[in-house]
Fold each of these.
Amino acid sequence: MAECCDSRGCAEEFDAAFAERMAARYRRRGLTRAERRLVDFLAADGVRGATVLEIGGGVGEIGLELLRRGAERCTTLELSSAYDEQAARLAADAGVADRVRRRIVDLAAEPEAVERADLVVLHRVVCCYPDAGRLLSAAAGRCRRRLAFTHPSRDPASRVVSAIENTLAGARGIRYRSFLHTPSAMLRALEEGGMRPVLPGRGWPWRVQGLVAA
């Protein structure tokens, strides 16, 4: 889906300045705790030669780490091209630019436009999408082996943060909104798509869930 068709305002909220901050943070500190858990889960059965699909991958740091561990190639999907410049620099610095492909695609709207992959990951993505069940169902349909995703904790603190974010976005005239989806409903969508949960959601503020193809 072309960037001009983005109905969720992601291109407005996650712009080039945001991408630059994310790339700088990764260069300084590496992966966050939640990102390390995602990578470790996805690589648990071995990653050499695997294909990776990083949905809403931003600057692509999770894909880069899996490529470093031996994955063959990574496709990163985004709704905005704002990340592309920083992502290309990070991939070039890591020496894997020829093994990374970036596409502007709304997977929930066009699941058949994306090839299946061995490993699928969605980090900080479902909270940005109004229909998480549809998105995760599409992700399950693209996964051969392992799928991992994160979602915010549904606790009072997260509810306050989400409400403040949405209020500020509205005040700035930005269409983007964040969502606190029900974890059980998200898992149900994945199970109906042929996945089996094996890593229970833990962590704060991002809970990490891991599933394998049933």
Amino acid sequence: MKKIVISLGGSVLVPSLESNNISRYVSVLKRIAERCQIFIVVGGGGEARRYIRVARDLSAGEAAADELGIMVTRLNARLLLAGLGDAAYPRVAENYTEAREFAETKKIVVMGGITPAQTTDAVSAVLAESVGADLLINATSVDGIYSADPKKDASAVRYEHLTPQDLLDIITRSRMDAGANMVLDIVAGKVVERSGIPLLVLDGRDPENLYRAIVEGASVGTIVSRENSNPLLA
């Protein structure tokens, strides 16, 4: 059974508490879990940014603001666990050791952030390396990796395939632009490069994209791998 780690952006799972997509994701994740062992790292999304903004307004340090963000990712993870019910291990994993231990039950493992100054994308990349995943998926609010921010540059080109070094080049180039919003952070990119685990970046606003990619092997989003082939069909 393949092991798949999914970095599930808070902006697609819980844009806000009132307009969350948890029920839609629960249905898809349960179907995927019948075929694969899955680990899910949940982001903080807009709710985390709200808490962090207020903390900064109150002159809290960046580490304290990060801690608040981590708490929100774990709250989002708890909401997802509530929806998944018996399909998931009933606790949010708070470190990689716990995630591996919980996985021994063969149930879905859910976690949020771990340490300050580390994004949930980075957490998911390290988790994928730690559990020996066959695939890492980043479900985000864009449909792949582009040559530039597609929301700002109409001429931006979406890539079908990149090597890990290509990805790092794009991340590094984007980080030099003020206010750049890259689909993946540099730590996650470097872990992807060293681990050699294929990465798929797809549009998480439609949960069915996960099923199409994992179960049907459909070509959705951007694949980052050393080989110029679809790892989903391997």
Amino acid sequence: MTSNLVQQLGSLSTGEQRLILNNVSWEQYETLRATLDDIPGLRMTYLEGTLEIMSPSPEHELDKTTIGRLIEIYALEKDIDLTGYGSTTFRKQAKARGLEPDECYCFGELKEVPDIAIEVVLSSGGIHKLSVYQGLGVPEVWFWQNNQFSVYRLRQEGYELIPRSEFLPELDLSILAQYVKLPSQTQAVKAYRDTLRQS
């Protein structure tokens, strides 16, 4: 299975590509995750026997890195104790779930799962990420899609769409969104920092 899969992944183009595999056991998922660790940027999402393998596009990676830099400058300017995990793999065998967020953060001390996970969505389809995050117990998930943020907060009955982050209630996501697509990351960070200092 692994050698055949590596061949399929090698044939993926440089754009954002997804490969969906069904009836994958937890042991096969863990073996594939370990085997394919050498392929840079590869994302795997596992949900109850379904495995999605995604090769992100350059635009996807650019957006997620810009968002991360903007959030980090916000935390720095506001003196918020923020720790980034990047795209660490989070897994919970008992819930048959695992994935790598595009970016994720903890406030204060590191925890078993991040406080906030961020997903950049440039194309439709694939596994429903909120179902995976719910099983992992991630409190807040942000989606960047169509040049805007959507924030979901985990409640007892599932995720609820909320107007702003409960971890960062003073963060205006509509203002943050204006800086994500600027041509230069450095200029975007500087301009956003200047906006924060003026507010």
